[in-house]
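Quick check before the chapter quiz. The format below is the same one you will see on the exam, so make sure you can read both the input and the output lines.
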Amino acid sequence: MQKYLLLFLFAFIFQLSLAQKKERKGEFYISWGYNKEYYTNSNVTINQPDLKNNFTFKNTLLVDHPGWDEGILNKALSIPQYNYRFGYFLDKNKDLAIEINFDHTKALFKDNQLIHMTGTFNGSMIDSSFIFTKSGQGTAENYYYLNNGANFLLFNIVKRKRFKNLSNEFIAIDGLAKAGVGPLIPHVENKLFGKNNNQGFQFGGWNTGLEYALRSTFRKKLYLELAGKLDYAYYYNLDVYKGNAKQGFGTMEFIFNLGYSLPMGPKL
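Here is the expected output.
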């Protein structure tokens, strides 16, 4: 009896050790980082029916406001242009994932730029240029900011390519190609001809993006990721004084993330 008991115990321990060594089918990951943007020029159309205004600012120059270039530790982590990703690899090869992809980006009219304005203003046709500046006085004071965020949210499909010849037991090098669509959640802050809006967050359109990331994973857990991204965003019904605005622009974005991977799901 003791012989069979020992044999059973050995078999149980052996099976348990095998089970512990089995891989999980899925893999969850999460990351946080910061970004830098370059924008295409943008036409911004303003409609203010009560003021008899329906005009367009043509080819406006947009700039970002990284924040982290002024120091990260001297302000809250969420004030600079940050980004986060949540993803889950679905298959046993861990090369296909779904991902929630959010970039807190800031898009501001460049101050003191020469703006070409066409359309209807105060009920009269207009086709002229003027200096758009926050330092103006009275009706000459103008600014237009997506300053607490142009805020790109994407639901991505992710495909991973493992570079096995560049990897070893300590570090794994992967490439991740991503594509997705999602809503825009901008924070709108502006003052046009001396009249400011009620600034705040709102649903404000849709965007689509393509991203490619190089990921270096250490000991299968902690990783660093450097990514480039192209995004097109179209905003509409944005709040301005007694009216709304619409615009579209493209973005070239560079992203640096720190992340963590965690095996999840059933064991193989």
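If your answer matched, good. The two ends are 34 Å apart (CA to CA).
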